[in-house]
Amino acid sequence: RRPSWTDRILYRVNADVYEDTKLVAIQKNYEDHPRYVQSDHKPVSAEFQIK
User: Fold this and answer.
1) For 2, 4, 10, 13, which has the most beta carbons within 10 A of its beta carbon?
2) What is the pLDDT of residue 45?
3) How would DSSP label each residue in 20-49?
4) Where's the Inositol polyphosphate-related phosphatase domain (predicted)?
5) pLDDT per position in the chain (51 positions), as tens?
6) Sequence-ordered list of residues with C-beta below 8 angstroms from that of 23, at least 6 positions apart, any chain
7) Are 48 and 11 in contact, with CB atoms under 8 Å apart?
8) 11 closest CA partner among 33, 22, 31, 26
9) CA atoms of 13 and 30, how far apart (whole Å)
10) How far apart are CA 40 and CA 31, in angstroms?
11) What per-residue confidence (pLDDT) applies to 27?
12) Residue 10 in contact with residue 31, Cβ under 8 Å?
């Protein structure tokens, strides 16, 4: 079985969509959820502030 990135959240701000506006994504929280037992892949979540 191939390894996977089950503990990462990939994100990108696409600045080309917003003319004359600088967007910044700030990660406020990152959390894993080890109590999820349906799979060997444990889910993660994150909270971002977009400015």
Assistant:
1) 13
2) 92
3) T----EEEEEEEE-TT--SSSSPPEEEEEE
4) 1-46
5) 566 666 788 888 876 777 777 888 899 999 988 888 787 777 889 999 988
6) 13, 15, 50, 51
7) yes
8) 26
9) 18
10) 17
11) 94
12) no
